[in-house]
Structure formats: structure tokens, C-alpha cells
Amino acid sequence: MLGETRWRKQTLLFSATLEGDAIQDFAERLLEDPVEVSANPSTRERKKIHQWYYRADDLEHKTALLVHLLKQPEATRSIVFVRKRERVHELANWAARSGHQQLLSRR
């Protein structure tokens, strides 16, 4: 990443999830005269977010669980995280093949 950005006049680094000494050291190596801007989300907004963690036995179980959760009436807006970009494509292809494409949207 460093090699690709050195020729540019301005380099910006945004991170919503990385924090601590490692990202600070990385930013100092990458950026010249870095400026840190931090935003704290409002407590009111954070209270609207609900998070759950589920364990699945295998890919079939995981996919069935995902469909079940996304079909719940209270699941009006959801974010699904996957580990790899390939998994996003697999999930989208599966949804299209199985008639569940309305559950997955890129909006």
C-alpha cells in the first residue's frame, strides 16, 4: 500500500475499525504531518444498534440461519459481514439461484 501511494500529493487514511498503537505507527510512517480527526458516535444512535453472534456447524447451516434471521419482521435493516470478498460473491450467487435475492442488496 505504501508503494502505491508515495507518488500522490495527498494521502488520506480513514479507518472505522482500526485503532491503537499499530494504526498510529502505520499512519506516522505513511503520512507526512498527519492530523487525526476523531468522531464519537452519539449514545442515542448507538442504542439503536443491536448486535448478535451466532455459531453455525457448516456453510449450509450458516446460510439457513442467515435466511431465517433476515426474514424476521424486525430485521428491517441489517449488515452482514463476511471474511472474504469471494464469500460475498458466493452469497449473492446463492441468493439469486435460490430465490432469496431480495434479502441481499448492495444499497
TrEMBL record:
Its EC number is 3.6.4.13. GO terms for cellular component: cytosol. Keywords: ATP-binding, Helicase, Hydrolase, Nucleotide-binding. Gene3D superfamilies: P-loop containing nucleotide triphosphate hydrolases. The keyword Protease does not apply. The keyword Hydrolase applies. It comes from the Bacteria. InterPro entries: DEAD_box_RNA_helicase, P-loop_NTPase. GO terms for molecular function: ATP binding; hydrolase activity; RNA helicase activity. This is ATP-dependent RNA helicase. It comes from Escherichia coli.
